Amino acid sequence: MSTTPDILLINIGGTKKRVYQDLSKDFSAVEPPFWLLLTAGYLRKQGFDVAALDANVLNLDEEETVDAVVARKARLNAIVVYSQQANTCTPVMGGVSRLCRAIKNRQADLPLILTGWHPSCLPERTLREEACDMVAEGEGFYTLRGLLRGDPLDTVPGLWWREGDGIRHNPRAPNIENLSEELDEVAWDLLPIDGGGYRAFNWLALSDLPTRTHCAGLFTSLGCPYQCSFCAIHATFGERRIRYWSPEWTMKQLDILARRYGVRHVNLIDELYVFNPKHYLPIAEALLQREYKLNFCAFARVDRVDKMPMEELRLLKRAGFNWFKLGIEHSDERVLHLAHKGNYAREDIRRVVGKIHEAGIDLCANFMFGLPGDDWETMQSNFNFAMELNCAFPSFFCTMAPPGSDLYDEALANGTPLPADWEGYAQQGYNFQPLPTEHLSPAEVLAFRDWAFQTYFTNPRYLDMIARKFGPAARDHIRAMTAVRLKRRLLGD
Predict the structure, then answer these.
(1) 199: Cβ–Cβ under 8 A, 6 or more apart, which residues?
(2) Distance from CA of residue 36 to its chain's centroid?
(3) Which one is predicted more confidently, 335 or 142?
(4) Are residue 138 and residue 199 in the same domain, yes or no?
(5) What is the mean predicted confidence (pLDDT) over 349-370?
(6) Where are the alpha helices (DSSP H) in 266-405?
(7) Range of 54's domain?
(8) Which CATH number fits the domain that encloses residue 385?
(9) Does 192 lie in the same domain as 162?
(10) Chain-wide mean pLDDT for the chain?
(11) What is the pLDDT of residue 1?
């Protein structure tokens, strides 16, 4: 690699404390930025010299990141604004904004583009507000390729740029259709995958906490066919469908991660992995042949799992799928309907959770408080249902309106108060401000969520279950997590 690469792809650092407060010390995940590595692989295949900087894993502060960026002297610098999900991307924009200003204050002529979920949701606003030169709308691959080739700006798909005192833009770039051919390379070698700085979700590694740093995240598909009102994924992909990499491609990446880097824990980032058996069954069968004994988690929906034969669930378990991230969200049918989440009832959820547990798979089950239609009674009922199910690690969220979601558009149209800054979208952040409902203020929703978290995770019945299933070390880890109390501006801290 030359000392002056064609492009430097940047994952920002310095946001963990602001986004997770003291939970960032040991209880939040730090995953390799897969989208950055996928972009790097694509551009290297196009013949460009690509460098990567993960300021997050290197624990670089703002000035140290600027030093590293300026020293590389790349022809183009791209901050890749991706997180583990589209809905968790916006909180890092505060750090992105500070880094952009710091870079331009140091070297004003350094070319800087923002790409990723949040910039793609709000390309014009991002370009007007941030100290960058360009923004990529859409997936970003064709946009960066056109810029590096030196194409005229008005021909680069998905590009937004400044021209004089105005802003110009081109139509969104088409999505890549044949993922396994065009996006066949992942530049794992550009970052210290085996360096010990990355760490899996704490719940994913409860059975083997000392190996938590042997982790990676991976997409095997892009997109989702559903339209949940609280989700922002469609703003980047611009469509409601799933595109797949082949099972062979997926296994190639897992071979690299297991054999070359010693990865033990794999977070499958797909918005809906457990959806098409023609995709997930061949992968499971190939994993059984490899005998890597990897530990996987994958997203699943209640209504899809309900239709799965038990033998498929048992096959996934044998292949290492020890965790499903199940989007339960709420136990009230009316609230679910208002969120466009699905047509299933409490009994359906009970049956599906029992089915998953019967297969030996644990659940990181999502529950949301403050969805449209929620009041004190429905939130308490939702929490009581979570207690009844006694899942290994429920995730309790307040409802928010991330840019790109239907709820965001509705909030703007209705004049519903939104956070004053992007860090106000961080669920564990000091400035977090959830949406109000027709019956509840943001502070009431937040206070209930934080009470629910402490009540669930300090419950002796739950802790006894964790000790029996994962061992005393896992129980002690949970106790240490609940000893960290989040401070909240909205609650007067």
Answers:
(1) 29, 30, 212, 213, 215
(2) 13
(3) 142
(4) no
(5) 96
(6) 277-290, 302-306, 310-318, 333-338, 346-358, 376-389
(7) 7-169
(8) 3.80.30.20
(9) no
(10) 94
(11) 40
